[in-house]
Structure formats: structure tokens, C-alpha cells
């Protein structure tokens, strides 16, 4: 519980303020490529990873289908909103965006319904199966999803003369969504709901005995995480300008897991840290080591993190600092072990 | 605790900042060309051969064109459109290339073409992607393509096959845009000549099990048009043989390569006489083609026995760029207007013949009808039976005829 | 309550059976030959899925280890089998090396990695994902993206005449028979041999078995090796039926997952049932509604998860 008091601690706000200022000022000293492809994309993937952090880190449910939800939200956006798709309803963004997010959230709730009655590792298996099935489905369905080709021509709106496809405005939209999502998750895990969720993660039987409806709690968490992922998915569709099966493919699903785990599942910031690292690697690996073994590199990093630092890079950072201070144990480490250990299955 | 987090953010921010400012300096007499191919993922090998094709062209020019040094900056995708656009964006916006070459595959091509509209100051030249949509739907004014699409190369085959006595054929092809366009190319001529296609089986991408599709082949067809990539075709033939089938095949362009022809099954000899149509042939015995193959073999130690289509397409597109640069003396001023004009009017001599551009900046060029024969060594090879020197993107049909059919899809064209 | 539930599920089973009977009746009148051939194909592919999934369910059922590298082990077996068969000219040598090679890899994985994280299921699952990412790229590095075909020996290669269908592939009939024997063999191993007794004892009470002087680590590592070896074996068998390409790892991992989710974790008969359901639905899908095969599979999985989260024959 000490993490909550830390957040309430007033000097914590200094840190947040500096971070926010840096993020706001970022476009003024980075070029368009860094604003758009590194900055905005990190924020988007960070949001999708954040939804996994919520599920896995705080709910104990490692879901691999978060990318499927995000991808489906993009598909729904193309189908409801303005796009080149012949099936598209061509609705205005003000309707299409919420409709896409809501529908994707419903899908997430359904996926949650399928997976919550089993526990622990079953969740990984079921969400992996569901996610891969989603991939094959969008790839083979032509009537709605246009199969292998996917749907294209998805453009963010122009509001008051500002084209949100331009790098800087798009960055700020992504930043706004990411910050809202982050603040939302941080307050959610402090709320009674969030505390109960962590209780269910640590000891579902006891929570059930205390009268909590653990299935409902889990499904609602899937819905909330689904809404976060769907928001990221809408931004991702705008970022790419299209959706295609590759966006919900197995590699993409696993990338989100890698991002969240590399960053650290025990704090909402982990997903964003992981996303920045992942995207920098993805873009600049070709200049450093050649690109053909990119996945091997990422796989090895992921492997080492899982083995040696279950708290991700956040854990590594605090470990180094703690070691320097010669403090034997940090509170964060204990938190992290709980994340990975599922007792009581 | 506080310090940890603050430092962490600081580190991230400063990494970004430093990287954001690190523009590489560029010499005056140098032209930077972004070269995008699939250097990761399942198509890595093809991407590497594409790079060989591009390098071969540059070697022929000794690294210089229009009096300037040409420098390739490589970009890598994994054959997915989003990764192709991200790599292109990095080359254009971060590495500040002057010209772009790429990408390799069809859906990547459509995505990169769409991106090219947002970067009107850069000229994009295709690598080997062959989607019809790229230049037929909403063509981009700064995207040029010097290779034929999948429908064009199959277009001469339909009427030829009909004249050879095939009247009713069933189609077995993978379920995505490239096979659609190949099938369209074939059917445009076949249906017009009076042939019938009672059934099309679109097999899901990546499916390796054709047995149930084979079981559903009607009795009353006299041939099967198979549009499957090399080894999937072998897979199909094997399962067809095991199911005891005996109908002759007509083959898509990618089916008649040595992966398939070196197939060791018992039905191997049944392949003799199989008709196909494509960009080139094993026994295209022209001096230009032989020289190209010889140069390719000489220049790379680790290359394929013969250049792949991807090497050939990248070679042609890079060659077009170099010739146009020579014509304008490396002048890329004025939004590259002179250079683009030179590209548009280029009479490009490729190893297979003359290629020019149409008003959508797409290639008009030759295609070859081939037949499989057994050579003296007992190997199966494809031999040219007819050369069609000029096929345009509307398959040499009138605009009205082509537009009635539209871009190839699962349903169109149709003549059951 | 219990009886009520049973009644409901009996009704559901009846409805499903009735639907299938209607479909079968229509399909037989439409084209009997096609229906029977496709059914046979469904059973063949079910046999292959069973073979792949049985190793997965064995490892999970006995070691409680969700081994998401299972698809990678399948593909590794296929590649090894191909390379060795190609070099030696003997398919059987390829089968042997594919099986034992992957068995050794599995043994090493258990000893070097999983043993050090026992009872940490989630961490184990994450590690298996990491290993499968690494293995996938290593295999791409080693074997490239070419598509390989393994040829079974000549005597299994052609077609044989059987009633109703006409000609049918001998190799497919072989897979059917082989799969059934592997299933039986595994059942015998677990239930009738000393090793089987030790494995089951180790699962029930590790400390007691250990106290009795049995090296539990060796028993567990052997179990893992057997599961992995079966994955390698099915890689060679499957690679000879169809082809070997990057991406098959995911395909067969998915197949194993769906089969055991539907059939029930850790049950040999459940795995067989799941494999038959998935294999048949996939083949009917391919033949009668070519692009929706995967959807049928998914619907079956979703329905089972809602009605019986533990799988059709899984223990509650």
C-alpha cells in the first residue's frame, strides 16, 4: 500500500510536473520523425501495453488479446467512420470514434467472459487462442473485414483548421489520451475497485469468501482494459491510415506483452517505458546491428528480463539505485514478486 | 524513490533529444537513395535478392549517376504494410533521403504509395510490388513503377490456352490480391475467347492442406488453373497426385520456377506441356537477358543460381532512376520536376525488353507465354512459346471493357 | 442442481448432434463421395492435431507447465527431420533424429530453465513465449523462409483404393493408425509401466516420492523430454503430410491450444475428442464454406469455454 501514499506525497507531484513539461515541450526540440514515429507511436503502444499492465499487473490476468482489441477498434473505426472501405458507413468521427471504442470494449468483455472462469496460465492460453482466431478471422473474412488487404483510407479529422494527421497535432492528441489513460489507471488502482482487484489477484478464494463477485470483477477489468486498448487502437489506425490482419497478428500480440514486461508490470508507467525502448530498437536496430535479427534481439532481451528482473526495467533501475544506497530490499520488489507469483491456483 | 523515477524520465527524454538532433551531414555532390526491402521476417531471403538487383544496377553505373555519387540507405520491413510505411518514413523524414526505391510486396506498395502523397518533394520509385490498385486507384503523382503487375503478365495466356483446346477450367488460388490479379489476367482473355470457369476455389493464405479442395474438383473441367507460390504448388501437386487426380494444369507466373520444376514426384512428367505466362522464362534466349544473368552470377558469391523476379524488378527500377538522373545531370531542384519528367518519358531497356510508363506512371512492357519442356539433361525448364511485346495495365482492353471488370477480385471477372 | 445441469448439457449435445446429422444428410445427398472424403480428411488432420496436442497436454497435465514453445518444438522437429532425411536419404532416420533431437532440447529446457522456476506458472509461461520468439528467429536464420517438403518412403506415398471414396492416400491412413498407436502407447506408459507410476506419483506428492529415494528432477525432466519428443515426432510426420515453413509453429501451437481447451487439459481421451471436433470442423469448413473454417473452430472453442470452462472431459 505504500505506493499510494507515495503518490499522495506532495513531492511526487514535482516529478509528474517535470515529466509532463518535458513531454509537452518535446515537439519543440525533436524533428517530425521523432515526434510522430517515435513519440506518438510510443504513446499509442504504451497505452495498449498499459491496458495489459492493468490486467496482468493488478488483475493477475495476462491477456495476449489486447492487441486484437486495439486492432478491432481500428477495423470498427474504418467501418463506421470515413475510409476507403466500400462497407463503411462513413459516419462523422464524433459518432464513429465512440462507436468503435464501445464495440471493441464489448468484444473485450466477451473475450473476458471466455477467459475469467479459468485462472492463471489458462488466461494466457485462452487469450492467445482467441487472439490468433481473431487474426485468422479478419484475414479470411471479406464481407466485413476485406481479408488479407484490410481496410484503408482511415484519416483523423480536421478540426478548426488543424489537421490531426500532421505530426505535432497528432502527437498532442496521443499525449492527451495517454496522460488521461495513465491518470485513470493510477486512480483506478487506488479506488476500492482497484484494491479489490489486487486482492482477487493475490487470493481469489479469500476474496470470494469475503463476498466479492470475482468473475464480475475480472470481466469489468477486461472491459476497462478493453476500452483503453481500443482507444490506443483508434489512434493506431489513424497513425497507420489503414488496418490489416498483420496489425493483429501473433507477432504484434506478443510485442505488446514484450513491451509491458520489459517496462515492468508493477507500475502503470512500465508500458510507456517499454514502448519507448521497443520502438527505438525497432527503428534504429538496422543502423546498429542490421535488421535481420531484430526479433532475436528482442526475444533475448525479453527472456533476460523475465528471468532476472520480473519487474522489468523499472525494477532494474530501482535495484541499481537501491544497491548504490546499500538498502537491502525495496518495497517495489515485493510488489513485483506478487505480480508474477499466482498463489492459490 | 523519487530520484529513481525522475532520472529514468530524464534519461529517456535526453536519449530522444540527442537522437532527434543527430542529423547526418550530407555532401553536396551526393544523392541519398532510400532502398526499402524485406530484410526481416519470412521474406528476408527475397529482400536480400532484391537488394542484389539494386546493387547490380548501381555497379553498372559505377556508383555515379548524373555526375553525383549515389548512396543507398537501406530500410527494412517485414512485408507488412505498416512496417513498410514506418521504414519509409524513417528514411524520408529522419535519414533525409532524396529519392526512394521500394517496396517489395503488393500490400506494402499500396501503403507506401499512399504515404508518398504526404511527401510530394520526394520521388518514389517502386521496388518489386505488383498490386494493380497501387497505380489504378488514386495514383500518386510522385510514385513511379517500372515493373508489370500480376494481371498484365498473365493477360496473354487466356486466349492462347483456349486455342490450345482448354474450354472449361477450375481455378485454385490463394485468397488475396496477387492471385486475384493473376486470375483476372488469365480470365480476361479466356472468357472473351469463349472459355468457361465454373468454379473458383480461393484457399486461405497459409493453408497447406488442399485435400478437401481437391475432393471438390468437378468432373467436367478439362484443366485446373493453379495460382500458388512455388512450394505451395508442389504441395498441391503432391496432394493431387496422392488423391489420384489426372487433369492438366495451367500455371500462374510464380508457379513456374525451379522450386516447382525440380519437383521429384511421380507426376513430374505430367508437367511437361504446362502453359504459363510471366515476366521472363528459363530459356529466354536473348543477349540482354543472358548478359544480365551472367553479371548477376559474377557479382555475388552467395546469390541464387539465377536472379529472382525481385532482383530483376529492383534492378529495372533502379536502372530507370539512374538513367533519368543521367539525363538531367543529377538535377533534383524545383521539386524534382525535371527528374520526374525524365522518368515519365524514359524508354527503359530492361533485360527482357522495352518498358515505358503510362499516364498513371505504371509500366507498359513485355510478357512471355511459356511452356514446360524437358531439356537434354532431363531437367524441366520453361521455354518461351510466344512473346507479347507490349501489355498495358488495362490488359490491352479498351478502358470501358476494363472498367466494367474493375480490379481483379474474388468475383470479378466471372464466366461460369 | 447437478442433475439439472446434466439435463441441460444432454439437451445441448442432442441439439448439436441433430444439427450435424442434418448437415451430414444434406451433404450426403448432395455429393456422397465428397462428404466421405472430407470426413476422412477431417479425421486425418484430427490425428495430426492429436499427435501435436498430446505432448502439450502431457506436459501440462503432469508438470503443470504451460509450454508455449510447443509449436516451436514441432517446427524444430520438422526442420531437423527434413535436414537429416535429406542428408541420409532415409525418412525413418529423419523421424528418429527429429524425435530424439527435440526430446533432448526439451530435456535441456526443463533442466536449465523450467526447473528453476517451479510453481511459478505465469513466469514459466512468459519464459516459454520468450523462448519461442528466440527459437522462431533462430530457425528462420538457419533454414531461411524456403518451404521444405519431406517425402515419406515410397511404399507409403501413393494412393490406395478403399470403399466409397475410391482412392485415398496411404500416408494419411498411416497417420491415422500411427496416432492411435501413440495415444495407446502413452496411455500404457503412464498406467502400466514403472516410469508411468513414478511420474504420476511425482505429480501427486513430490516430496513423498523424493523421500522414497526417487530422483524427482530426473522423472520430471524425462516427462518433459517425452512431451517434447512427441512434438518433434509430430513435426516430422506433419512435415511429410504438408510442408514446413516459418509460421507453422504458431499454427500448431494454436491447434494444440484449441484442442486441449476444447477437450480438457491433461486428459488423453479429451485431447482425442477435441482433435476430432476441431479437425472435422476445419475440413468441413474448407470444403463447404472455404473461408470460414477457422470461425467454426472458434465458435466451438467459445461454446465450450462458456459451457464447460475446464473443457469437455477436463476435471473440475
From TrEMBL, chain A:
Subcellular localization(s) per the UniProt record: Cell membrane
Signal peptide stretch: none
Organism, scientific name: Sneathiella chungangensis
Keywords, comma-separated and alphabetical: Cell membrane, Membrane, Transmembrane, Transmembrane helix
Membrane association type: Multi-pass membrane protein
CDD domains the record matches: TM_PBP1_LivM_like
Cited Pfam families: BPD_transp_2 (PF02653)
TM region(s), chain numbering: 12-29, 35-55, 62-80, 92-114, 121-138, 170-189, 210-236, 242-262, 269-290, 296-317
This protein's name: Branched-chain amino acid ABC transporter permease
Superkingdom in the source lineage: Bacteria
GO MF annotations, alphabetized: branched-chain amino acid transmembrane transporter activity
GO cellular component, one term: plasma membrane
Automatic annotation (TrEMBL), chain B:
Domain Leucine-binding protein: 30-374
Family annotation (Pfam families): Peripla_BP_6 (PF13458)
Signal peptide: 1-27
Keyword Signal on entry: yes
Keywords: Amino-acid transport, Signal, Transport
GO process annotations (BP): amino acid transport
Domain of life: Bacteria
Family, as annotated: Belongs to the leucine-binding protein family.
Name of this chain's protein: ABC transporter substrate-binding protein
Species in which this protein is naturally found: Sneathiella chungangensis
UniProtKB/TrEMBL annotation, chain C:
InterPro entries xref list: ABC_transp_permease, BCAA_transport_permease
A GO MF term: transmembrane transporter activity
Domain of life (superkingdom): Bacteria
Protein's cellular compartments: Cell membrane
Keyword Phosphoprotein: no
Entry's transmembrane regions: 43-63, 68-85, 91-113, 125-144, 170-190, 211-233, 253-278, 285-307
GO BP: amino acid transport
Topology term for the membrane: Multi-pass membrane protein
Keyword presence, Hydrolase: no
Pfam family, one: BPD_transp_2
Keywords, in A-Z order: Amino-acid transport, Cell membrane, Membrane, Transmembrane, Transmembrane helix, Transport
Any one of the GO CC terms: plasma membrane
Chief localization: membrane
The family this protein is said to belong to: Belongs to the binding-protein-dependent transport system permease family. LivHM subfamily.
PANTHER family per the UniProt record, alphabetical: ABC TRANSPORTER ATP-BINDING PROTEIN (PTHR11795:SF442), BRANCHED-CHAIN AMINO ACID TRANSPORT SYSTEM PERMEASE PROTEIN LIVH (PTHR11795)
Protein name: Branched-chain amino acid ABC transporter permease
Species per Swiss-Prot/TrEMBL record: Sneathiella chungangensis
Organism lineage string: Bacteria, Pseudomonadati, Pseudomonadota, Alphaproteobacteria, Sneathiellales
